[in-house]
Design a protein that fits this description.
- Four copies of one chain form a homotetramer.
- By secondary structure, chain A is of the alpha/beta class.
- The mean pLDDT of chain A is about 95.
- Chain A is built from 14 helices and eleven strands.
- Chains A, B, C, D: This is Aminotransferase class V-fold PLP-dependent enzyme.
- Chains A, B, C, D: Homotetramer.
Chain lengths: ~350, ~350, ~350, ~350
């Protein structure tokens, strides 16, 4: 019963096989390997973006921070939601990589940035000339940190606002595949066709060992990104093993298969929560993350049985067994029905 | 005939097996996995350093830069050799991670820092009070970038000088194992017993897929390093796969076995070069790197036959077949006698 | 009728005289001048802080940023109000000087930080371990950016909260003297006795040419600050001319005299605004800044007559003469009754 | 007998008068004052550069660091001499403001960069692609830190080399006027006509209180510089007092008059040193700085009589009265013949 994160499960066997296959003979280092050429072509095809600049890094924070540093000046402010991973969970990495850019938090009900509030915040940053921060990129997360999913229209609206102010746009797609499966659209529709300039395309949370693709639809950013990546110590010498993961991930739609599995497991779990008296969602679960509250007593039962997940609000210790504590549950591709049903049985008590 | 670098060869099968073994069930993310506990104990034992703080990162530049940022203040200068990897090959990563520290280059014949020159440079940095950079860490590379190896006494002397000025010390051990095999001493003797405070302990170039250990002998640096690592986007969520590599690397002396293989291959190659008329070493090859010069015509033969290595000085294209060009040759654990002999046959013409 | 800022007026004659007096013969550069020794003693005496480390810089942003960089780590977050000068008016200077620290905005009615909200925000920053920013300094502004003044008790409460979490505290005292005159307390009471660790002690807005003192009550910060100041290019070679200003400013209570003049002028202006039908304060003016709204038609009259001040909300151009636009009015020591009365006459129409 | 630096003497009376004159009524802050408009026009006229972007800052380190940060990327290396002020005397400010650029030291006999060595160093930075630092600006100092002066031809040659590699060029003109007086050329000839892109135009060392002009001949750098200046806390609110200094400095050729006085005083001093037995120049004094050696006994006599200057090599304390110690002597505009002659009398003993 492991629902703490989608980074605690095992690597998909097809990825492991690809690593073994890649482990033959010599390969040029630092991204000059043949497998990287293949990955570049795969991503360009998947995204219908024949000009895109494509790179691999080993962590999502690296993908986000290096992209934002390429899109933002140090005197800019980056617009994001108050619960954005780049704001809450990267220990100031965006500030570090950008050389001190600021993050402006925009009201985001359900973790989705509100367009009117975005426009208002952007306007507010223009009243002080050289004194205030300048308008930098818009960064949105898809799937959001609360498990909701922007529609293509919503992304288009937000990017349209950003573009009307000349601002670049970034999509933190640590759970890109999970969102795509939910929306049933194409990668192009969810990104550049909607106005996104650069994507952190996640692999790690969805069955890979540790690889994220960086995609710039405009290749003008390529050389600066390469320098920033190297200077950030994120250029792996044995790049072929990152490339092997990403290539296998994109082969035969493995990435969509694992995302579908994760989303389906989450749906099963959510359905059970929904039918549990005293349990309620904080956000509508649309991909592979659930935020739900239920009484402390039920948390205690789950905890005692070894269930692993984060309690976001409230504390397990306490006098009132009826007090509602908020849980965050995440399913990865390997979550089993058996585990889910066991969890739900304990939840219902 | 691949002698371009020790990062172009395959991962050792025992490392691959360990990755497969680690790929079972769930594991806590971000270094809280059980395998990481094991690695920590293994390194503490290998280094006879029961208090050491131990971390894993995926690139050597990350290990170096994050350690130096922990040891240096932004207004310091780091003392290193003019051919130090941190100076020449990291695209200003040390400057980036330290927030703008300077690197002071100290004369280093054979790529080994000269103690008198070190003392003189340190003294020179103390004449300007608040105006000049302040004295920061000493950083030495073992095996050096020219294939030479410091003796334990030489390390002790350099660290002694640094310590006499209150300066911390760092050892860039991207090829730590190769040096240890050459010296036949213990890891403790080559490091903390000689005065080293922090080590970049390489795995990647010696048979791993992509893992370097960071070792601080004084655990007071631990928490700051953890924050710097996260902020540098170098904390892997699925840390278990880094830990699995490092653990296998240290098990049954695999790391020494692969280093011995690389050094032995290099010795065979060096012996052949030595016996080749018109060929000469620029530095005495003491581990797994050779710098040697020979006529352009021989380079041309090798190149035409597909041999891969870097020409450091001179250019393959040119009118004079007798002109001496300098080659850098590096052997990894997988270099075969057959390849070496084929190379030597071509060299001799 | 110049009410745009307290940095648009002339330097007080006594400061000019002091500059002339200081301009004789030779003086040691970089703060080693005798006048600097005197300033240090004067500030220590005024603040009843015989151990304090004291420095001079030429801008308020320099004082704030260099102090915050000394008190904060790059992975920290600084707690301040949403309208703090360090957040809105320094073009990311705090982020730059700290190496990428974040600013956490705490709800601040009347621009004064609410203690409960502060506590809640501090608590919220402790749930993510190495992933989130760490707790850094609290920074408060006195006089606030909206013209209100913290009581000594309020400062004590806020600092007490910060201290209970081990956080250092900074007071942006660009208008320190104006606040002190309002409160009628001692400098010590408004700072270290209330729990403040470091002060940006303003001179520029209150009659000086361009000088701010940096005060650390604990001298342990001294050497780091000196290095940061030099590295920030804020160590003036001819420091004697900064010292001369600050010394004259503190002599014979000139600083309190000029602040009293500014506050009295503001009170006269505020009284007139108060008695104007259709005009209303947004915040209670407690020192030398007024935020008030009145109809566009009155703004137009004032503007046509050459009155200078900032319109903070709303725009002079518009169809509705009755629409209320917000003005910010600031008086410096040189504001004349004549000008104020002329302004009020125009306001009343 | 004050020869320690040209920043220890008094401000020229004409500058003081200008400050008094500027101190009337209100003036727009942050560089929007009318006096700044005048300064801009004066500099454009003096430099025959009608398009130039012109700014004022209060320290030479600010001018240098902010210009270099505008011209260099964080992954670049800046080419300068080993004794450059930006390398030795700014406590890593260039590294700080650029976000971690490196400084490559180029052999510079007499403190003047050798063109062949420059070309060789530039070439050496191009062998490592993304791994090494990239080619950034060339920065030269005129008057050099050793008191020598580049000819216009020498500057043209160095800039020509930089330009042939697409590198921008910076002139640290802390002693610009002193050099101009030596060469007898025009400001344009010594700068943009010779290939210089940006100038730190010094006022502080030559009779001002604390002001340096930043000049970009191509105004495309203007807005970025303004943001960097504000973010670096170097935008003075009361800019009029910087502008008043610079304007007076450029009026009626005051700047050339003070430089001529300083150079003439230095020539008188140098002539005396030259005629002193046992004394010898290390570099030919060409402007207002002398490096000369003479026996310890003579230093002792001077020291006992209160003469102030820096001993660069060797120490006053020592057993051997005949040992040669190197002195650095600098004259400012106010150095008197009487003081010089007194100094020379003591020197000769």
């Amino acid at each position: 019963m492991f629902f703490a994160s989608d980074n605690t499960g095992p690597v998909h066997p097809a990825i492991m096989d690809a690593l073994t296959l890649a482990n033959a003979g010599y390969a040029m280092p630092y991204g000059a390997d043949a497998m990287m050429d293949k990955v570049r072509e795969q991503i360009r095809e998947v995204f219908e973006a024949p000009e895109a600049a494509v790179y691999l890094v080993s962590t999502g924070t690296a993908a986000n921070s290096l992209i934002l540093a390429t899109l933002a000046q140090p005197w800019d402010t980056i617009f994001c939601s108050p619960v954005a991973h780049i704001h809450e969970d990267e220990c100031n990495a965006p500030e570090f990589f950008t050389g001190g850019a600021k993050l402006t938090l925009v009201n985001a009900p359900n973790a989705k940035i509100n367009p009117d509030k975005l426009r208002r915040k952007i306007e507010a940053e223009e009243t002080r000339g050289v004194h205030g921060p300048q308008r930098g990129p818009l960064s949105i997360t898809q799937v959001t940190e609360r498990g909701t999913v922007y529609t293509v229209e919503e992304i288009t609206t937000l990017c349209g606002i950003a573009k009307s102010y000349g601002m670049p746009t970034h999509l933190d797609g640590a759970r890109f595949a999970n969102a795509l499966v939910t929306l049933g659209c194409t990668p192009a529709e969810m990104t550049w066709k909607a106005g996104i300039d650069a994507v952190s395309f996640g692999g790690t949370k969805n069955g890979c060992m540790g690889v994220e693709a960086v995609i710039f639809f405009d290749p003008k950013h390529a050389w600066e990104f390469e320098l920033r990546r190297k200077r950030g110590a994120h250029l792996p010498s044995k790049n072929r093993y990152l490339a092997a993961q990403m290539s296998a991930y994109l082969t035969s739609n493995l990435w969509l298969e694992t995302a579908r599995a994760a989303n389906a497991a989450t749906a099963r779990l959510a359905e059970g929560v929904k039918q549990t008296e005293g349990a309620a969602f904080l956000y509508e679960p649309q991909a592979n993350i659930i935020f739900a509250g239920w009484p402390r007593a039920a948390h205690q039962r789950l905890h005692d049985a070894g269930a692993q997940y984060h309690i976001m609000e409230g504390q397990l210790e306490g006098d009132n067994p009826d007090e509602i504590l908020t849980a965050r549950l995440v399913c990865d591709w390997s979550a089993s029905d058996e585990n889910i049903d066991q969890f739900l049985a304990l939840l219902k008590g």
